[in-house]
Amino acid sequence: MDHQSIAPGFYPEMTNDEYHAAPGISKSHLDQIDITPAHYFARYLDPSREEEEKTPALILGDAIHKAVLEPDLFESRFVARPKGIDGRTNAGKAQLAALFADAGDRTVLGTDDYKTAIAVRDSVHRHPLASGLFRDGLAEATFFAKDARTGALVKCKPDFYRSQFSMIVDLKTTESASLENFARSAGRYLYDVQAAWYPDVIESLYGEVIETFVFVAVEKSPPYAVGVYYLEPEDVQIGREIAHRNLDKILKCREANVWPDYAGMAGAQPLRIPGYMRRTT
Q1: What is the CATH number of the domain that holds 178?
Q2: Is residue 147 part of a domain?
Q3: 139 to each of 159, 176, 199, 279, how far by Cα in Å?
Q4: Is 270 part of a structural domain of the chain?
């Protein structure tokens, strides 16, 4: 695929790697510029940047998403590494070599991670509310559009798109799926921006208004409990305003080719010790 000539449209077969390599501004881009433009440049534009390696947590997240969203494809993409193989011995090295040779393009997961992905899948699929949300839709399809406000190329890759219901469903794995803890995660990771950005990209492409954006939060340890949440319209609108601000910041920095850090944006600032940490004499 020629990543330099992506046209607005729907790309159902685009892989995650192709999506991230393709041009266009995504929600992840907005997250980086929200830290500082210097962080954005280092992540996406620095010609000397090293290719980012996937952490074990990201690999497990990919496995869980595939197991839940496309269960029929899970075993064709992932294989379990049996316990008890000692990679320090000649016999163990031979076993591992045979395992990876047999795996081919599949990702080899540790036994515990493989079991976790299956357990999360089963928990979501038997859940009376969450299971129905992952039916009658498209998993991990990619959309590119010209932003209606700025004309910039923008993109998104919803976990599950239910066009006939004007709904996007997003799967989040978490340590705690409780309302209180997931609300903290939503604030920390700008889920309000995501709940605005994805629908806006699709609306820019098709003119279709996405009525509902639902988060399915599932814990990564027993009992793999599930929470189903949505943001109130006023919170989504705040997320939209943040998305617009950050998109404008990206475009402005690109035009000027200036990517300031904390001091570059604000100069020298007074520093105050937080009240709860302040010492007394």
Answers
A1: 3.90.320.10
A2: yes
A3: 6, 24, 15, 53
A4: no
Rounded Cα distance between 140 and 170, Å, is: 10
Q: What pLDDT is recorded for position 4? A: 53
Residues of the chain with pLDDT under 50: 1-3
139 is a domain residue: yes
Q: Please state, in angstroms and rounded to a whole number, the distance separating the CA atoms of residues 138 and 160.
A: 5
- Look at residue 52 and tell me if it is in a domain: no
Domain count, the chain: 1
Q: What are phi and psi of 256, to 5 degrees?
A: -85, -15
> Could you tell me which of 167, 172, 170, 171 has the C-alpha nearest to residue 137?
167
How much is the pLDDT for 107?
Answer: 85
pLDDT of residue 1: 44
- Per the structure, the complete domain to which residue 24 belongs is given by 7-43+123-257
Q: pTM value?
A: 0.90
Confidence (pLDDT) at 2: 43
The DSSP string of the chain is --GGGPPSEEETT--HHHHHHSSSB-HHHHHHHHH-HHHHIIIII-TTPPPPPPPHHHHHHHHHHHHHH-GGGHHHHEEEEPTT--TTSHHHHHHHHHHHHHHTTSEEEEHHHHHHHHHHHHHHHT-TTHHHHTSSSEES-EEEEE-TTT--EEEE--SEEEGGGTEEEEEEEES--SHHHHHHHHHHTTHHHHHHHHHHHHHHHH-PPP-EEEEEEEESSTT--EEEE---HHHHHHHHHHHHHHHHHHHHHHHHT----HHHHH-S------GGG----
Confidence (pLDDT) at 86: 65
